[in-house]
Amino acid sequence: MRDQPLMLGLIGASGTGKTTLTQGIVRLLGAQGVTPINLDDYLRYSRAERAVRGLTDADPRATDLDRMAADLAALRAGQTIEKPIYNHKTGVPQGSERVAPTGLVIAYGALTLTPPVQPDLFDLTVYFDPDPELYRRWREERDVRQRGYTPEEVRMAWPARERDIQRYIVVQRPLADVVLRFLPGEVGYDLQMWLRRRALAFDVINALADAGQGVAVQIQSVAADDDGLPANVINATSDPALDRLSEGLRSRLPVSGQVSTGEMVQGTHPTLTFAQTLIATLLLQRG
Fold first, then answer.
1. How would you write the chain as a 3-class SS string?
2. Structural domains of the chain in order of their starting residue, each with its CATH number
3. Is the pTM of this model over 0.85?
């Protein structure tokens, strides 16, 4: 039995789907065994203060990275932390809460792999890299619906946000074990996953074969992905066969005290459900 929790690190700009995927994994594995940590809660300043200082939420100077790194290391060691709370609807810091790690910690945020955070704290890291136009639509819809912005405010802030996303967030992508990319599809979203670790690719191929891969996904090896790294690439489309493959993966999850077999993952799209289930499978195989 492990003395330390498994740790999954999710990286990506605000609005790329990290929270949605986290919620799906929590539903799949059971809330009692999973500790989700929103690292964007470590923002130092209110939304108004950031505007005065000329900082976007992607700028590392707006985040208490030292505290974030120390808390992640403490969680990895099985210790309880006092985590800040940030109200993302009002844009104001709002106290703190005690968080004790369970068997699985999911840490998700824009700066998850930014120093002084050590990438080797995590058993698996996933970078979210949706199609640019798709991401812009997701971000505007999310900010207007959940965070109190007007559409015009979102559009006005976009140039500075895009600049800082390229400066501070995209630079973390080469460090990730997996890159998750959603693309516009004929029906719903298509999915592309880059697997950088050879062992990960081996685990995926075996898991998909056991689950009855069929024609639901295609896997190919590339000498250099968009970051110049060798990778195995999974391509999947929203197809009924993909739902069957996700169900096959779910039924073959490794035995774990965290798994609740009665829980079902209901993603908005078949490709999202597949991504949630495959990442959960890969992570539990690290345990």
1. CCCCCEEEEEECCCCCCHHHHHHHHHHHHCHHHEEEEEHHHHECCCHHHHHHHCCCCCCHHHECHHHHHHHHHHHHCCCCEEEEEEECCCCEEEEEEEECCCCEEEEEECCCCCCCCCHHHCCEEEEECCCHHHHHHHHHHHHHHHCCCCHHHHHHHHHHHHHHHHHHHHHHHHHCCEEEEEEECCCCEEEEEEECCHHHHHHHHHHHHHHCCCCCEEEEEECCCCCCCCEEEEEECCCHHHHHHHHHHHHCCCCCCCCCCCCCCCCCCHHHHHHHHHHHHHHHHCC
2. 6-285 (3.40.50.300)
3. yes
